[in-house]
Amino acid sequence: MNRRLRKFSMLSLFFALFVSLFAACGQSDKTSNESPTAPADSAESVDPSSSDSGKSAGKLEGKVVFWSMWSSSEPQAKVIEAAVADFKAANPQVEVEVKFNGRDLFKLIKPALDGGEQVDIWEGDPSGGGGLATLKEHVFKLDDLLSENALGMDKSVKDSIQPSLMTWVNTLSSSVGLEEGGYAIPQQPYAVLFFYNKEVYEKAGVTAVPTTWEEFLGVCEMIKKSGVAPITFDDAYRDLFIGGYLSSAMGSDWVDQLVKDKTGEMWNDPIVHQFANDIVMMREKGYFSEKIAGSKYPAAQQDLVLGQSATYLNGTWLPIEVSNTAGPDFKWGSFQFPNVSNGNGKGGQQGLTFGSQGILMNKNSKNIPAAFELVKYLVSKKAQEGMVKEALAIPATIDTAWPEPLKDASVAFENASVNIPWGGGINNAGDFASVSIIPVFMELITGKINAEQYVTKMMEAAKKYYAGQ
Fold first, then answer.
1. How far is CA 40 from the centre of its chain?
2. Can you tell me the distance from the alpha carbon of 455 to that of 210, in angstroms, rounded to the nearest whole number?
3. Considering Cα of 269, then 270, then 275, then 279, what sign does the dihedral take?
């Protein structure tokens, strides 16, 4: 599974995955589960005669097969089962088969579709696993259907979804060679932010979240003096800190150019020197957890909720991943990566790494009307409210209250105007990040090399990497 879905495997990827969202990664429940014919306890029944039931509700028939990326034991499954039950109550002539595959779906969906197996609807990250790039020959263009009425809202399906998410998903089609349009409906959004322990911040005397790098360093100093490690991360999220800093200063397009520079000369840019010097300074001042060198996922997030560290750059799936440890009274806070000074004016907090798991449909489905009617239940405001309650997920629908642990994250969604790639683009050059960028960064952050050695080593690593291509 790709890293967004471990981090979503990194998800996913957005929702955290639930012995943890990603601890459950790879878990599979391959038994097909036909949805119950009566609404589940967590959902109210939908009146089949209501206009909210869809223009063809009660007249549909046949069979619809839906593959979910969640396992049957995860909280998202409970919400899905309730939505399917409501659909069945309104459309008793339609047989629905739900298969909770877990994250194994991302290995199974392409062979199933290629082999002609009936899968009318599936879940996936449109920009990643189970998405457009690998399944473009199978996805159905939804533009005409998106004008249908949304359930429970006086809006079309398209207008019921957060505009930033619809804009994002529509930009993906041309990048993979599809005709421009919408091929997925955002269903379970995510974003990458700094998450922090509000109780630790308050005890340290921090009264406002930082928006600039200088303010962030000031916060780190206050927290350090309180006796808590200001910053932590583990091996699953090291790339976020590197890319977060550089893209905040220069924008993700510049980062993309940096990691793809075959000469290695861009690694000698003043902003890279600044980054390296800042990391050395932060290490010397004790701003990083002493456990960082050997921290393996999910150790860092446990340190955060146990009060041993204060701040962790992660995804909005984090609160549900650690809910068992954190408990219901944990005080969550979040903020965007601070503005890094001396950049080119193209970074800053206008950019945010965000996306969404989505619902996709098979263009070869023999029951498009019934399949899309089910989709409307799955992405309805009622279902999104269920995801908020059961999975602490960001709602995809507008005018829907966010879960308490993620309310601060809504500010970032409102402020962002540019969707930047995972890690600010630091992973855009294949395995260059994993074989060179991250290992050399870890040498820097652990004091094995100094700032100037870091720059020299990265210049040489880039040249060597591309010489072997």
1. 28
2. 28
3. positive
